[in-house]
Structures are given as C-alpha cells and as structure tokens.
Amino acid sequence: MKNTLLYISRLLVGSLLIVSGVVKANDTMGFSYKLVDYFTEGVLGMEFLQPYTLLMAGVICAVEIVLGAALIFGLKSKLVTIANLAMMLFFTFLTFYSAYFNKVTDCGCFGDALKLKPWETFQKDVVLSFFSIILFIYHKQIFPNKKEEDFKCILPSIVLIILFAVGVIGWWFPVFFAVLIYAIMFVAKRFDTNSWRLLSISAIATGLFVYYTLNHLPIEDFRPYAVEKNIVEGMVPAPDALPELTEYMWTFDVNGKTVTKTTFGDYPVVEGGKNIGVTTKTLREAEEPPVHDFTIETEAQDDTELILGKDNVLMIVAYDFKKSSDEGFKAIKTLTDNAITKGYTVIGLTAEDAPTRASKIKEYNLNFPFYFCDGTALKTVVRANPGILEIDKATIKQKLHWRDIDQLEL
After folding, report:
1. Cis bond upstream, residue 237 (ω within 30)
2. Residue 1, pLDDT above cutoff 60
3. 11 and 111 belong to one structural domain
4. Do 332 and 311 form a contact (C-beta atoms < 8 A)?
C-alpha cells in the first residue's frame, strides 16, 4: 500500500509539474506579469522584486520541469522532495491568502490556458501538497530507476500528461515536450548515470523553449486576441456570464428602534419605518467579456468602432516606449511605409500620453498616428513591444513579434 501511494504520488506530482511548467514557459512574459500582481503593495507588498519577475518566471518554469523529470526518473530524491514540498506549501499559502482576501483572482498556474478561480486553485494546491508530503516522508525509498522501472514510470506519466494537457487544456505540445526530454534522458542514462547531468537535459530544453517564446511569440495563443479571433465579438459577455452581486444593508428607524434589512437590490418594505441609511457590499464582481478595456482613442475622440470596421488594418502595438526596441521600431518604419503604399490603414496603439506619442512619431519619422489604449490590455494583445497585428474587420489575421517582421504577408 505504501509503495503504491508513493508510486502514484511520483506520477501525479511529476506529470503535473511538467505540464504546468511547459504551459507557463509557453508564455513566460505573461507569467511574469502575474508575478508583478502578486508583488504589488496590496498583495505581498514586495515591489522591490518587480524588476526581476521575468527572470523569476523563467526560473520557476525550469524548476517545475526539472523537479517533475526528477520525480519520474527517481533522481536526487531528498533534495527534489524537499524543494517540491517547500514550493507546494508556499503556493498553497499564497493561493489561500489570495482567495481569502480576494487579492489576485487568477493564480496564473496554467497561464491563460486554464483559468482557475482562487478557491479552485487553493484546493488543487492542497491536493498536490498532500502527495508532496507523501513524497517527502518516503523520499528514502525513491531511487534512480533501473531500465525496467523507467518504462513503469515514463509510460504512465505520458498517459497522465495527455490527460492533463490534452484532456483539460486541449494542447498536445506538453506531451511532445515530455516525450522529447524523457527519450533523451532515457538514452543518456545508458552512457552516463550522473543525476545532475541527466537533469540538466530538462533544464536546457526548458531554457531553449523560454528563450524562443520570449524572442518570438508563444507557440500557442490562449488569449482572446489569438489569430482568427474577432475583437468585437470578444467584447460581448458570454450568455452565461454572471452579473455583479451586491448586498444592500438598509437601516430603518421604527418607533425609535433601529431595524436592519438586507436585500440584493430591492428596496425593502418596513411598515412604519423611516429609512436612515444604507451600506453596500460587493459579493461578486460582474464577469467581464474576454476582451475588455480595449480602445482606439485620442484625447479628442474614440475611433475604436471606425478602425475595427475596416479591412486591411496594420496595428503596431507598443505599450511602453521606454521598454520598446529601437531595432524593432526601425524595422516597423520600413514595414509600415510599404504597407501604406499598398493601401493599408496603419495605426499604432500605446499607453503613452499625447506628447510622448508625438515624440515617438517624430523620432522615427513614422507615417501613421499612435492612439491610446490601456497598457494592461495591450500587454494582453501581444507579448512583444513592439508587436504587429494585421486585422480585417476586427478579425486578427496575422500577429507577429517584431523580430519576425519579415514573415508578415501584405
């Protein structure tokens, strides 16, 4: 029984760590934005860590995948189980704190691929912490796999990864990634049994994947601004979206006595009572549509509807000019001049103010206007600064990182 529970714990925790790490590594930039949310003053109050969130995001992705591979292959059991348990307990505390005090409504555990509510995330972490405790208690019984043990762990792990990645998220790539590192580690073990060198294979594979997605774009886009998504349609709330739920606490004076009535919007009937006050408490925020806070506007007017109603629109997105690439804007200049000659409507979107937008246009001699849009919305639109979108009547047809600008088809 004990050996069976230990075996199940290794498979479950190891496989889920790999899926979680791969999904976050696919969008390391987006995961770093979530870490910024956690470090804000209203949550953990650790703003001094915000400049390092991108590095931390990449490290966390690599650690999850390395720990997952180590559990499957039975490598460095003491160190791995301690590190895994410490990580699970920390995130269990963090998700409980976030859920109880309603601090961060989306943990970012699986990026934009799977949205979990705060209490759902906490429950997941409690279950994983239970299995992580089992791994820690019995870590002395975890040894490096022999050849036949590799098959007993690798094959069921791949099945679990298929269930997690394909069955829940609907994405095959984590399966391919796991098969790749499992296969390389399995073959490498025939020539070198050093645990650190074997685990470095998963770390290097993760590092290369993170490097690629940061310098290009996520290979799978789970956001409402993915290619073939329609921005206008994304602004419409889902039919089953829950409205805001507000509790009203009415206070009445009834013959000198204070009476309190609670409703959810209706004015209560209190015979002989005189209303002397009301307080409200929001119990549930309204569920927002997938696309929100997206505008195309200047200080004078809102051109969102006008621009999204056009064909052949080239949209340059740069949420923060200070963090944008000089090389990228030079490439943008060449691209947009060419697009304009071919009849495209070219615009820019940024969170900068009007004088800063005008300065940027002058600096690079750009032949198109820059509109204002919320910075958070723009960071969701494209994980590049600048990034390029080609849009036809609000439907995104192409989306590229500035490094891949030569792949844009006009």
Report:
1. no
2. no
3. yes
4. no
Q: pLDDT digits over 291-301, tens only?
A: 988 999 998 89
Residue 361 C-alpha from the chain's centroid: 32
* 320 and 271 within one domain: no
Q: What is the mean pLDDT of residues 148-155?
A: 92
Assess contact for 231 and 394: CB atoms under 8 A: yes
Is the model more confident about 25 or about 116?
25
Residues 194 and 331 in one domain: no
Alpha carbon distances (Å) from 184 to 133, 191, 192, 205? 29, 11, 12, 10
Domain end, chosen from 236, 268, 284, is at 284
Q: Could you tell me the pTM of the whole model? A: 0.86
Where do we find the tokens 């009445």? 252
83 plus 18 within the same structural domain? yes
